[in-house]
UniProtKB/TrEMBL annotation:
Its main location: secreted. Residues 23-47 are annotated as: Disordered. It comes from Danionella cerebrum. Residues 29-44 have a biased composition (Low complexity). GO terms for biological process: blood coagulation, common pathway; fibrinolysis; platelet aggregation; positive regulation of heterotypic cell-cell adhesion. GO terms for cellular component: fibrinogen complex. This is Fibrinogen C-terminal domain-containing protein. GO terms for molecular function: extracellular matrix structural constituent; protein-macromolecule adaptor activity.
Length: 437
């Protein structure tokens, strides 16, 4: 509003100055036209003293010219003054000069006020820039803090996962220790390594001295355990204890059971990793795990017993004097020989020296048979096959590519008869049962 007032006053001053100039020119024109030259005689009584003339110049000044005779001892009247019109014009001119002076002072004051306003505007602009600069800085700091907050949340999630994994490992270690304590007379060294830690940061082991620690169910039997059940053994080639089911009743006991089928509640169509680590329930159906079978069978010379039962309740068994499997690098290759028993051999003669395969390894027989086994082309025995209640099944009725049941071919001379119960177990070949004291 002050700037608007300033511009209004300046405009008024300019217009007023223009009006004054126009009025001055108009007056000059009138004066010039009315009295450009006026000549008056000067006399004193009868004496001619001379004459004078006055005129208004274009620049507004009054010009007076006097012509006086050279008289001696005579005094002429005082004629050196302007006419009334010229005096009036001179007074008007002085007033206008004063107005012009006042206008100049007003203009100077307005110009000063204008400069002050410009200065204030500049100050406001600087303050605005400073304010926006501060806001920009605060926004940058906010974004930085938000990024730090997100990174902290991510680290908290990672730490939470690590803590959860460590807690799981501690629980597993505690359970393992408890299982080991249930073994009569067995004290072992337990070392657990976290997969999340480097080799230099392994967990501290729980050190326990050992004495007659069982490496299989046969050694448990020698230590006085003559009842069947679940126990913990520590294979000499293994680094960790493992729970196993011990059959202390069949043929003198001492058998470490590594496979059992009895009701079809466990699915044996599993991947390589599951067959390697083991799956199922030791109380019902299970596969102990190829790593554990390898660790136990590689401790010495072991025998294999396979028990079979059909849907009419008939029992038979196959016994192999020599049994072991190789490690994972060699695909748990089978070595089995020395057959005897109450059934015909459908396993050793055909599957010996075959590698273990599962459906996810790309072996066509494992895919067709829906199980993990030591397949050849494809099998005469498939004890990990699909559980078919009632025994008989057909490829046509099940829309199969081939037989996939729990098959022992020589039982019915057929690939399409699935057994009701089977189990596989091993013990040292030199095992001799003895009575407990």
């Amino acid at each position: 509003m002050k700037l608007s007032l300033l511009y209004t006053v300046l405009l008024w001053a300019v217009v007023r100055a223009s009006e004054v100039t126009e009025e001055s020119k108009s007056t000059d024109s009138v004066k010039t036209s009315s009295s450009q030259s006026s000549t008056h005689p000067v006399s004193s009584g009868l004496m001619q003293c001379g004459e004078y003339s006055n005129e208004v110049m274009p620049n507004g000044q009054c010009r007076i010219t006097a012509t006086l005779p050279q008289l001696e001892e005579q005094r002429c009247p005082d004629m050196f003054r302007c006419t009334d019109e010229v005096s009036f014009w001179l007074r008007e001119n002085e007033e206008r000069k004063q107005q012009m002076h006042d206008l100049k002072e007003t203009i100077s004051e307005l110009q000063e006020e204008l400069r002050n306003h410009r200065h204030r505007i500049k100050v406001l602009e600087l303050q605005r820039e400073e304010k926006y600069g501060t806001n920009s800085s605060l926004e940058h700091r906010f974004l930085t803090l938000q990024q730090i907050y997100e990174e902290a949340n991510a680290l908290l999630d990672i730490h939470g996962s690590l803590i959860y994994d460590l807690q799981t490992q501690i629980r597993n270690l505690t359970m393992t220790v408890e299982r080991v304590k249930r073994n009569p007379g067995c004290m072992i060294n337990i070392v657990r390594t976290s997969p999340l830690l480097s080799a230099q940061h392994t967990l501290h082991p729980e050190v326990q001295h050992i004495r007659n620690c069982p490496i299989d169910c046969a050694s448990l039997y020698y230590n006085g355990v003559h009842r069947s059940g679940i126990f913990t053994v520590v294979p000499s080639l293994g680094s960790t204890p493992v729970e196993v089911y011990c059959d202390m009743d069949t043929q003198g006991g001492g058998w470490t059971v590594f496979q059992r089928r009895q009701d079809g509640r466990v699915n044996f169509n599993r991947k390589w990793a599951e067959y390697r680590e083991g799956f199922g329930d030791l109380h019902t159906e299970f596969w102990l795990g190829n790593e554990h079978i390898y660790a136990i069978s590689s401790q010495g010379e072991y025998s294999l017993r396979i028990d079979l039962e059909d849907w009419s309740g008939k029992h038979k068994h196959a016994l192999y004097q020599n049994f072991r499997i190789e490690n994972e690098d060699n695909h748990y290759r089978l070595h089995v020989s020395g057959f005897s028993g109450t059934t015909e051999d459908s396993f050793g003669w055909y599957h010996d020296k075959q590698s273990f395969s599962t459906p996810d390894t790309g072996h066509i027989c494992a895919e067709i048979s829906h199980a993990g086994w030591w397949y050849h082309q494809c099998f005469f025995a498939n004890l990990n096959g699909v559980y078919y209640k009632g025994g008989r099944y057909s490829a046509k009725g099940k829309n199969l590519l081939g037989p996939d049941g729990i098959v022992w071919y020589s039982w019915k001379d057929s690939d399409y008869y699935s057994l009701k119960k089977v189990s596989m177990m091993l013990r040292p070949r030199t095992y001799r049962s003895r009575l407990s004291p």
